[in-house]
Amino acid sequence: MIHFTCDGCQRPINLEDELRYVVRVEVYAAFDGEESDAADRDHLQEIDDILEALDELEDAGSDEEVFQQVRYDLCAECRKRFLRNPLGRMSNRGVGFSNN
Ligand SMILES: [Zn+2]
């Protein structure tokens, strides 16, 4: 039997009586062309520019800064906690905010 460990609390997830949740996070650089005067350029030109920019970044060996994907397995508890606060901001704030 395959064993999963919760990436939130490090507890083994017992699939016989609980659900496992998968969180996939994609982080990628947003090339929206706003730094230049993109307002009246056509989309093909924009795509060209993006590809060029990606090429340059790849040459510089910084793929990870352009696109990164991570995956977590979570138990039900940690899923709730994650959804309430996906960016982990609670840690600087204390626990007391209302749950709507
Ligand atoms: Zn957990």
UniProtKB/TrEMBL annotation:
Name-wise, this protein is: Uncharacterized protein
Whose protein is this, by species? Posidoniimonas corsicana
